[in-house]
């Protein structure tokens, strides 16, 4: 289960303190030592951990907290609030363009779940927001990527625009958007190429598509199981493309939590959705507060 180790360790640290009636500064410090280790072991970025521990400690060691009626509860509340803040605080929604169709670009490395997530997102928009999305197959390099998206489209009964793999992705994106306008589609989701590693050719292609397609949202799809690698990938994509949000996949696996807890803080960009399985309805909006409560138990 995701976050299992982290959850257990954080809960243990809190419980130890909860058993005490009155708590001292030393108790808070001891608890925070354990919290720090739990976060580091969950593969949370070390700078993020340092900042988190500092903030929680400063807020907890004040007189109002330690002298209050239920100091341990107050401290736990602070941990919960700061964990929520770390993941972005408020839930963030999908932005729409002032003029239809809204273009969403899906980017990410191969295997992260980009193509599947493009389908999931189309399904989500139709089902939850009553939209008329269209998918565009602009990943012309990975063998079978176009076919994969077409199959997903068939399963969902959502149209997929494709032009084979002999036309440039920029042109496919452009024609796809034209087609969406003709057919009065209000969302265009472009599945772009992923590669095994970030390279210049990939980024140039993506910046070209961005310049032309003028997307309202650029969602980076990253695999939660890859921990700090996911965070590094997010940093690079964000530097080059100024992404608008992250979709964290494979949260149904036993990810330790590092990516979920670090990405927002490191990139400044919110996690918008999480992938919770291989099925096309396994996409959930990301609620920082619920996630924090789930981790803290
Ligand atoms: P792409 O190369 O980034 O386009 O990746 P794909 O969409 O082909 O996905 C790679 C694999 O990850 C496929 O087997 C997907 O079914 C799987 N996958 C994608 N998202 C999730 C998820 O949220 N949970 C799980 N368990 N598997 C996922």
Automatic annotation (TrEMBL):
* Top-level EC class: hydrolase
- Supply the alphabetized keyword list: Cytoplasm, GTP-binding, Hydrolase, Nucleotide-binding, Ribonucleoprotein, RNA-binding, Signal recognition particle
**What biological-process GO terms show up in the record?**
SRP-dependent cotranslational protein targeting to membrane
Example GO molecular function = GTPase activity
Span of domain AAA+ ATPase? 100-248
Where is each SRP54-type proteins GTP-binding domain found?
101-297
Q: What is its main location?
A: cytoplasm
Q: EC number(s) on record?
A: 3.6.5.4
Q: Has the keyword Chaperone been applied to this entry?
A: no
- Signal peptide boundaries: none
Q: What Gene Ontology cellular component terms go with this record?
A: signal recognition particle
Reactions mediated catalytically: GTP + H2O = GDP + phosphate + H(+)
Q: Which residues form the Signal recognition particle SRP54 helical bundle domain?
A: 2-87
The UniProt annotation places GTP binding at 108-115, 191-195, 249-252
Judging by the UniProt lineage, the source's domain of life is Bacteria
| Subcellular localization(s) per the UniProt record | Cytoplasm
The annotated subunit structure for this chain is: Part of the signal recognition particle protein translocation system, which is composed of SRP and FtsY.
User: Domain description from the entry?
Assistant: Composed of three domains: the N-terminal N domain, which is responsible for interactions with the ribosome, the central G domain, which binds GTP, and the C-terminal M domain, which binds the RNA and the signal sequence of the RNC.
Q: Which family does it belong to?
A: Belongs to the GTP-binding SRP family. SRP54 subfamily.
Q: What does this protein do?
A: Involved in targeting and insertion of nascent membrane proteins into the cytoplasmic membrane. Binds to the hydrophobic signal sequence of the ribosome-nascent chain (RNC) as it emerges from the ribosomes. The SRP-RNC complex is then targeted to the cytoplasmic membrane where it interacts with the SRP receptor FtsY.
Q: What is this protein called?
A: Signal recognition particle protein
What organism does the record attribute this protein to?
Answer: Carnobacterium divergens DSM 20623
């Amino acid at each position: 289960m995701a976050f299992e180790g982290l959850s257990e360790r954080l809960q243990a640290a809190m419980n130890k303190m909860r058993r005490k009636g009155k708590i001292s500064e030393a108790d808070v410090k001891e608890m925070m030592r354990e919290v720090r280790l739990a976060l580091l072991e969950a593969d949370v970025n070390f700078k993020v951990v340092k900042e988190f521990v500092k903030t929680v400690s400063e807020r907890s060691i004040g007189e109002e907290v330690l002298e209050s009626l239920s100091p341990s509860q107050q401290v736990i509340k602070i941990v919960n609030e700061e964990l929520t803040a770390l993941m972005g605080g408020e839930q963030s929604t999908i932005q729409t363009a002032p003029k239809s169709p809204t273009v969403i670009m899906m980017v990410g490395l191969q295997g992260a779940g980009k193509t599947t997530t493009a389908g999931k997102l189309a399904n989500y928009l139709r089902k939850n927001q009553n939209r008329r999305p269209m998918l565009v197959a602009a990943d012309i390099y990975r063998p079978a990527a176009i076919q994969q998206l077409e199959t997903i489209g068939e399963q969902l009964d959502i149209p997929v625009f494709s032009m084979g793999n002999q036309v440039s992705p920029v042109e496919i994106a452009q024609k796809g958007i034209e087609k969406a306008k003709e057919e009065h589609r209000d969302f265009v989701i472009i599945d772009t190429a992923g590669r095994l590693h970030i390279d210049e050719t990939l980024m140039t292609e993506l910046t070209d598509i961005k310049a032309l397609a003028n997307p309202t949202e650029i969602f980076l799809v990253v695999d939660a199981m890859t921990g700090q690698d996911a965070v590094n990938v997010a940093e690079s994509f964000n530097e080059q493309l100024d992404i608008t949000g992250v979709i964290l996949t494979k949260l149904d696996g036993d990810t330790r939590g590092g990516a979920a807890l670090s990405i927002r803080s490191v990139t400044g960009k919110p996690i918008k959705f999480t992938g919770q399985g291989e099925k096309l309805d396994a996409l959930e909006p990301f609620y920082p507060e619920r996630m924090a409560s789930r981790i803290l138990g």
